[in-house]
Design brief:
15 helices, 0% strand, globular
């Protein structure tokens, strides 16, 4: 199965999609012609139906027993989706359900040594504290916050602790970079990854949230400029240092994740070069990002967030149209294409980062596009 539906340039989404697929043409064209308010209402309705499916498959049919508790592929991702639905509807049933799932995830994660938000216990306690606050349960909120600090370490969120972490990140990156052309470099499982999930892009994204010294700012800028200079001739970004495979156009590897970080760099540093690089990377996503996958980590749902981010940065309605186009394609065709085996529904098909849980999350974010953020990455 080819990696994407439309490998060629897409100057006109409707024309390309009509010619390439030949099915559901009228439905897709009609959605694209709707006012944004009407489209977002339809996507919201679709999101609620998807949410019910996700809850049933990941929570109801499991006997409310949690094996995978993570945000990435587990029950906590379901809780995240249900909480987003609550934010849209203010339905207390959603809030209560979310609280129940988090409590089950808390129990299931008690022996875990993982500490991250996406794949560890920090996600359980952080989301739990937010839900408890919305529920008005201050004692439960305090309990989750205490467990967050207890698990991660003393004074986890203090500036002193963050400074120590930044020092270590910079020192480690400088050491591995050595006298190379890139100021900072990191290695994971034997590879020097560039991507947002576990590479240079994601690390630079985190560093831009910290208070940096002038030389550290230059290191971050220099690392991003190194990546821009050494991107593929197509405009896409390498999955790892030295890779010559210009294939992946995902959040985890390739232009989509890099675009989100370059948007942030343009906002933080006010640098026109980063703005232009973000726009260029966004073009790669538009031309090559309609993948045969549904998820937000490596699929159309995640790539749609690129256009929402560019819309928020520039105010250019063209990016909102592109988000509308990708979301409309998912709404009309994803479930049918998955059932026909023409689209990959994800190894964990109901999960937030790989499956239709992420698609539902995207549809809910389309309700207020200026407020949309890629889950657990954009702040």
């Amino acid at each position: 199965m080819a990696d994407r539906f439309f490998p060629n340039e897409m100057p006109n989404f409707v024309a390309e999609s009509t010619v390439s697929r030949g099915t559901s043409t009228d439905s897709l064209t009609n959605l694209l012609s709707l006012s944004y308010k009407t489209l977002s209402d339809q996507l919201k309705t679709a999101a609620f139906a998807l949410k019910e499916t996700v809850v049933r498959e990941t929570w109801g049919l499991s006997g409310k027993r949690v094996q995978d508790y993570t945000v990435y592929t587990g029950a906590l991702g379901t809780a995240y989706l249900v909480f987003k639905a609550y934010q849209v509807t203010k339905n207390l049933n959603d809030l209560n359900l979310c609280s129940d799932i988090v409590k089950a995830c808390d129990s299931a994660s008690k022996d875990s040594g993982r500490v991250t938000f996406i794949c560890g216990r920090a996600g359980v306690y952080a989301l739990g504290a937010v839900i408890a606050k919305h529920s008005g349960d201050t004692s439960l909120q305090d309990r989750y916050l205490a467990k967050f600090k207890e698990h991660i370490g003393k004074d986890t969120i203090s500036t002193v602790h963050m400074r120590a972490v930044v020092d270590e990140i910079i020192k480690s990156g400088s050491r591995l970079a050595g006298k190379g052309r890139c100021p900072l470099m990191y290695e994971w499982h034997g590879k020097k990854y560039w991507g947002a999930a576990h590479g240079l892009t994601g690390i630079m994204n985190v560093l831009m949230d910290m208070e940096l010294k002038p030389d550290e700012v230059e290191n971050v800028k220099g690392t991003l400029r190194y990546m821009i200079k050494n991107r593929f001739p197509s405009g896409n970004y390498r999955s790892s240092e030295g890779s010559e495979s210009d294939r992946l156009v995902h959040w985890c590897h390739g232009a989509p994740g890099v675009t989100l970080t370059l948007v942030k760099a343009a906002e933080v540093f006010g640098d026109k070069d980063f703005l232009q690089a973000a726009l260029d990377a966004g073009e790669v996503v538009w031309k090559r990002g309609l993948l045969k996958r549904v998820g937000i980590c490596h699929g159309i749902s995640g790539n749609t967030y690129v256009f929402l981010s560019l819309y928020r940065l520039t105010g250019n309605a063209e990016y909102l149209y592109r988000a509308k186009a990708f979301a409309s394609f998912l709404s009309v065709r994803a479930e049918k294409l998955i059932s026909e085996g023409k689209m990959h529904g994800g190894d964990r098909p109901y999960s937030l980062f790989e499956g239709i849980g992420g698609m539902a999350c995207l549809f809910l974010d389309m309700v207020e596009p200026s407020q949309a953020r890629f889950p657990a990455y954009e702040i």
